[in-house]
Amino acid sequence: MNTFIASRPSLLIVAATTAFLMLTGCVTRGSYDEVTEERDQLLRQNAALEDDTVGLSTELVLRDLEVAQLESEQQELTDEVTRWAVRGAIKMQMLADGLHLTLPYDVLFASGTTMLSDEGRELIVELVQEINQQPYQIAVLGFTDNMPVGSKLAEHYPSNWELAGARAASVVRIMEEEGIPANQLIAVSRGETDPIASNDTAEGRAQNRRIDVRLRPVVR
Questions:
Q1: Which of 26, 27, 72, 88 has the fewest beta carbons under 10 Å from its own?
Q2: Taking Cα atoms as reference points, which of 183, 86, 191 lies closest to residue 148?
Q3: pLDDT tens, 84-109?
Q4: Residues 130-146: tens digit of each pLDDT
Q5: Sheet holding 98-104: strands in order across?
Q6: What value, to the nearest 5°, has the Cα angle with vertex 195 and ends 91 and 145?
Q7: How far is Cα 107 from Cα 127, in angstroms, rounded to an integer?
Q8: Pairwise CA distance, residues 159 & 164, whole Å
Q9: Of the candidates 138, 106, 133, the residue with the CA atom closest to the CA atom of residue 207
């Protein structure tokens, strides 16, 4: 922005110098061409800076629109989240990359499986009904604790990477079945790499086993 402001005096100086030299007649053709080229170059730079400024302003407006839409969605979800939270089912945070909804594995999945429990499916269906009024890019991230995969699952999911990914995919599958377009969904495995509590206690490991649903508006 400062460069854009500073360019205007430069243009005035070049224009004034060119006019003076033309009036006095004490300039060679080569010198005049050099001054003209400098003037034209400054004009081109000025036009580019104006384009950049317009583009930046548009980006800032889009970000503001995204934040406003997410804040509106957060407000609409408040009552539902309060009801779900009574069951320890969901937490909600507005962060820099969007609206985060955190759902514990213990609520979503039957023990030792990657299939949603009846209660977990019901919660995801209710969530989709709440957020399906607006187009969102929805990332579903699966997280685990640091314990090795149990023998019941290890044949199909040899590590926590596969286990977390399969559970995230289960959530995405239900969301698609409930009407969210596939191109707005992504399933991601974070495995055990991003704990939010200590893995040294059962309570901490339970917090680390989770699904994060991250919403960001699709700007058209």
A1: 26
A2: 191
A3: 665 566 788 877 778 888 988 888 99
A4: 888 778 899 999 999 99
A5: 91-95, 98-104, 210-217, 136-143, 185-191
A6: 100
A7: 14
A8: 9
A9: 106
* CA atoms of 127 and 140, how far apart (whole Å): 13
Spacing of C-alpha 52 from chain mean position:
23
Q: Which residues contact 4 (CB under 8 A, 6 or more apart)?
A: 46, 49, 50, 53
Picking from 144, 130, 122, 142, the residue whose alpha carbon sits closest to that of residue 186 is 142
Can you tell me the distance from the alpha carbon of 130 to that of 13, in angstroms, rounded to the nearest whole number?
60
Structure tokens of 172?
A: 């995405």
What stretch of H or E contains 40?
Answer: helix 29-85
Which contacts of 164-168 are long-range, i.e. CB under 8 A and separated by 24 or more positions? 164/189, 164/190, 164/191, 164/192, 165/189, 166/114, 166/142, 167/105, 167/108, 167/109, 167/114, 167/142, 167/211, 168/140, 168/141, 168/142, 168/211
* 3-state percent breakdown (helix, strand, coil) of the chain, nearest 5: 60, 15, 25
Domain 87-217 has CATH 3.10.520.10: no
Total-model pTM: 0.65
